[in-house]
Amino acid sequence: MKRHSILFILLLFTATMQSQDYKQPKQGKPPVVNVKKPQAFTMSNGLKVMVVEDHKLPRVTFNLTIDNPPFAEKDKKGVDDLTSSLMGNGSVKISKDDFNEELDFLGANVSFSSHGAYANSLSKYSGRVLELLSFGTLFPNFTQVELDKEKAKMLESLKSQEKSAPAIANRVVDVLTFGKNHPSGEYLTQETIENVNVEDIQKYYDAHFIPENAYLVVIGDVKFNDVKKSIEALFGKWKKRSTPEELYPDPVSVPALEINFVDVPNASQSEISLVNTVHLKMNAPDFFPAVIATHILGGGYNSNLNMNLREAHGWTYGANSSIGIGKYIDKLKSSSSVRINATDSAVVEFVKEIKKLRTEKVSDQVLNDVKAGFIGRFVMNFEKPQSIARYALNTEIDELPKDFYENYIKSITAVTPDDVLKAANKYFLIDNTRIIIAAKGEEVIPGLEKLAIPITYFDKFGNPVEKPKHK
Question: pLDDT grade, residue 9 (50/70/90)?
């Protein structure tokens, strides 16, 4: 009886919708957000501090960021990762066990890396938590015992990825896109990890963990004058010094579309990545159109690539695109793991979708849906302390206009189909793209050779090799 009643209601609803001129509700006006402006000061050693008072909850967040320029580690690749792992594993001011025990007692969350530190706690404990944060960042205790533990973990992880097609693909993508001598093109090996010793860790820390490039953002239930005094007392001991900035030639995209193939005989799927270099800054006039164009191509479930490769053809569990953003050159990458027997067909569809983005205007409906998603995520994240800290930090590091986030929704709303088309033509350089494929060569090379796209071959470390021979 219950089943028939539900069926009757569904039929009645359908008939009602068909008999009326049903219209989808119109989107309301974009919400207005009130961006909290931090109170700021710069210490004599160069540390820049931003404080946002928020007394809604009795909690405080500290976010320390070191904004260093790119640095090549060369034959000691891994020193940065190992330094990150050792940060917080004890201090000359307090032992590792006592440090962790006190954090547990205070109910605080603290983490460290070679590029900064983070802490979150109740405001009544914020003074002690800030002091512990300073112990871990300014007075680390690098020991051989801890280094050996972290190196063993890193080597084990490296060994587990030795035959992983996704890991091989990611490594070769960066090697070929940036070059082995560029900071973004370096990769870990057993030899480079074993080359690192405690003296290297200390030397790296001394040269790169510096206040000149540091930002400390404080958000929460604090008073500006009180927290300023605490920061000056604790971080005033941080010695001022500068790190040498090394310059690297900017990598360039290839002159014509080509396939770079890596033979991975044990691969169960084909890893496909279409890559070209980009330099997109957040303060660029076409920043929002470029980000929206990337999202339309492969930024969500309803993106063009996902609807094509996954929904229409069933070749993959998902396809995506991402565009690098920041002060330094980066990459634009569209990628997917596809069925082996669909590798050449997927390449064709990748190229087709990128060309379509460059030649056909996006519909108003699709564009409005994407913009609504961006606005919704922005508004939802706006209440989080981490987001407020990131916004304040981005404004400083990326040299954004002071009203960048106040105008964020307005800037998103203003993007037109013409803007998206123009950005796609500027950044999605399909004629200068590497199609990097890590796959089972014996099964996929014959199909790829029929695409009339030049193919060059590389080993799993990005070194040129001859075409693999198969029986």
Answer: very low
Note the pLDDT of residue 31: 64
* CA distance linking residue 293 with residue 279, whole number of Å: 15
How far apart, in whole angstroms, are the C-alpha atoms of residue 194 and residue 148?
A: 10
* Distances 135 to 92, 112, 141, 238, 299 between C-alpha atoms, Å: 8, 11, 10, 11, 41
Nearest-angstrom CA–CA distance, 109 and 101: 12
Question: 218 has which bridge partners?
Answer: 51, 62
Residue 200 CA to residue 198 CA, distance in Å, equals 5
The whole-angstrom separation of Cα 179 and Cα 187 is 11
- Alpha carbon 261 to its chain centroid, in Å, reads 25
Query: Residue 346: which pLDDT band, with cuts at 50, 70 and 90?
Result: very high
pLDDT (mean) for 424-438: 98
Contacts of 311 (CB under 8 A, 6+ apart): none
pLDDT above 90: residue 2: no
Q: If you average pLDDT over residues 341-362, what whole number do you get?
A: 98
Whether the predicted pLDDT of 25 surpasses 70: no
Q: What are 252's two structure tokens? A: 């360039």
Q: Is the pLDDT of residue 471 over 90?
A: no
Longest CA pairwise span in the chain (Å)? 80
In sequence order, which residues have a C-beta less than 8 Å from that of residue 182 and are 6 or more positions away? Answer: 70, 72, 248, 249, 251
CB 296 within 8 A of CB 363: no
Q: Which amino acid is located at 381 in the chain? A: N
- Angle in degrees, CA 211, 214, 219, rounded to 5: 125
**Burial class for 377, CB neighbours closer than 10 Å (0-12, 13-18, 19+):** exposed
Residue 19 has pLDDT above 50, yes or no: no
Residue with tokens 């097609």, as numbered in its chain: 165
Q: List the one residue out of 364, 352, 375, 456 whose CA is nearest residue 419.
A: 364
Structure tokens at 468: 């693999």
Can you spell out the DSSP letters for 90-128? -BSSS-HHHHHHHHHHHT-EEEEETTEEEEEEEGGGHHH
Collapsed DSSP state (helix, strand, coil) of residue 87:
coil
- pLDDT for 180-232, tens place per residue? 999 999 999 999 999 999 999 999 999 999 999 999 999 999 999 999 999 99
DSSP at 187: -
What are the residues whose beta carbons fall under 8 Å from the beta carbon of 380, sequence distance 6 or more?
none
Contact in structure between 65 and 115 (CB atoms under 8 Å): yes
